[in-house]
Amino acid sequence: MILSAIAFYVFAAIIIASAVLVVSARNPVHSVFFLILAFFNAAGIFVLAGAEFLAMILVIVYVGAVAVLFMFVVMMLDINFVRLREGFLQYLPVGALVGIILLIELVFIVTTQVNVPEVLAISGAPTPNISEVTNTHALGRLIYTRYIYLFQAGGLILLVAMIGAIVLTLRERPGVRKQRISDQVGRSRSDSIEIKKVSPGNGI
Amino acid sequence: MPQAPVPDILPALPEIWLAVAAMLLLMVGAFRGNASTRMVSWLAVVAVAIAFVLVLSGSKETGTTFAGMFVVDSFSTFAKELILVGTAATLVMSMDYIRREGMERFEFPVLILLATIGMMMMVSANDLISLYVGIELQSLALYVIAAFKRDTLKSTEAGLKYFVLGALSSGMLLYGASLIYGFTGSTNFEAIGALYTQAGQEPSIGLIVGLVFLISGLAFKVSAVPFHMWTPDVYEGASTPATAFFAIAPKVAAMTLLVRVLIAPFFGAVDDWQQIITLIAILSMGYGAFAALRQANIKRLMAYSSIGHMGFALVGLAAGTEQGVQSVLIYLLIYLVMNIGAFAAILTMRVKGQMVEGIDDLAGLGRNNPMLALVLAILFFSLAGIPPLAGFFGKFYVFLAAIDAQLYTLAVLGVLSSVVGAYYYLRIIKVMYFDEPAESFERPIGREMTLILGASTLFTAFFVVFPGPFLAWTQQAAAALLP
Amino acid sequence: MMFILIVFLPGIAALIAGLYGRLLGDRPAQLITSFAVTLSAILSIVAFFQITGTDEVERIQVLHWISSGGLDFSWAILVDPLTAVMFVVVNGVSALVHWYSIGYMSHDPHKPRFFAYLSLFTFAMLMLVSADNFVQLFFGWEGVGLASYLLIGFWFDKPAANAAAIKAFLVNRIGDFGFALGIMAIFLVFNSVDYATVFEKAPDVAGTSIGFLGMELDTLTVITFLLFIGAMGKSAQIFLHTWLPDAMEGPTPVSALIHAATMVTAGVFLVARTSPLFELAPITLGFVTVVGAVTALFAGTVALAQNDIKRVIAYSTCSQLGYMFFAAGLSAYSVAIFHLFTHAFFKALLFLGAGSVIHAMSDEQDMRRMGGLFSLMPLTGTMMWIGSISLAGIGISGVFGFSGFYSKDLILEVAWASDAFGANLAYWVGLAVALLTALYSGRLLFMTFHGKARASQSAMAHAHEAPLSMNIPNMVLTLGAVLAGIFAVHGFTESEEFWGDSLFMLEESVAILEAAHHLPFWVKMIPVLAGLLGLLLAWYFYIRRPDLPAKIAEANRPLYQFLLNKWYFDEIYEALLVRPMKLLGYALWRIGDGRIIDGFGPDGFAALVMGLARRSAALQSGFLYHYAFAMLIGVAVLVSWFLFFG
Question: Do B230 and C633 touch (CB under 8 A)?
Answer without folding.
Answer: no
